[in-house]
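Work Package 3 (structural annotation) set out to generate three-dimensional models for the target panel prioritized at the project kickoff. During this period the team completed the workflow that converts sequence records into discrete structure tokens, so that structures can be stored uniformly alongside our sequence database. As a representative example, we reproduce one entry of 386 residues exactly as it appears in the project archive.
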Amino acid sequence: MKRAFLIVLDSFGIGELPDAHLFGDRGANTLGSISRSEKLRIPNLISLGLGNIDGVNCIEKADTPLGVFAKCEEKSMGKDTTVGHWEIAGLISENPMPTYSNGFDKEIIEEFEKRTGKRVICNKPYSGTEVIYDYGREHTKTGALIVYTSADSVFQIAAHEDVVPLDELYSYCKTAREMLVGKWAVGRVIARPFIGEFPNYKRTSARRDFSLEPTGKTVLDALKENNFDVISVGKINDIFASRGITEKYKTHSNLDGINKTIELMSKDFCGLCFTNLVDFDMIYGHRNDIDGYASALSEFDMYLPRIMSSLRDDDLLIITADHGCDPGDTSTDHTREYVPLLIYKKEINPKNLGILPSYSVIASTIAEFFGIDYKTNYTGILKNIN
């Protein structure tokens, strides 16, 4: 009964990609920034080989790493959650999804207002915490929806839960998702509920992503077609618009996601458990909170021995990321970075695989592991693990 556990540390980049300057991210290094924090204590990630990855010089190296380690380059034209996860699952996005650096086109906003019957305020690129501070009072007085974007391909709708109940907010997001196709096909529509009173508004964990459906076949689809389990933990189900998923578990925090993954490790299933830990990105990276990011990574590291010891003899553990979000960067946006790849199983030949040409190597490796016919443009690395 083969099982693979794929854990995405959302936004955990390890240094700028060669084309980072094209994305305004010259010098970005998420790990480099948090390595300066006294809160960072990650002995278990280091023991797997994180510090031994080529180009990682900001943390200590393991004398005898326990795992296979490498860094992966992103081939997709983007630096956001959707294209990052799709590439991990084997689907490379050659064309960038539309972004709106000056806010959404007038025709988009007018169509959204027509379909929902709600007025829109803001319509600018904005930090998620700052936008509710600046527009929250107008929203609570008028009921108008706060619509904003970022450097990513996202249409975000913020609303106070006492003004717009969650089901209603989700309904407006579904409406936006239905209309944002074709030339308007943003990667994600995101519900951003918040609570509290000004000036202490607080975003809640009831966020929900409404992603564009994958534009091609992923390894998740292939696994499901071959009767393997594909279990989503966190926002994986949302990112793939439920495609290729057989079972899903929502989470409210990194710790909740870690604990649900550990619980699943005690269960009998045959297939892939795919976990996203979003707090690194949502709570710390986008808020430029270096110490918070370092503490969150240290928390994951503290649970890593339990995760590793819960593996059965034939299980495979893969730890990676989907993009960067350097909390030491001048902006609050995602950053174009290499991501780490750490692989561990009970019987493994530890080694450095250098630089891998695409995140989709992970999908190819998963396909090899389960013996299914799924091909990407990049060969898997299973022979380097066994």
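The first strand starts at residue 3 and ends at 9.
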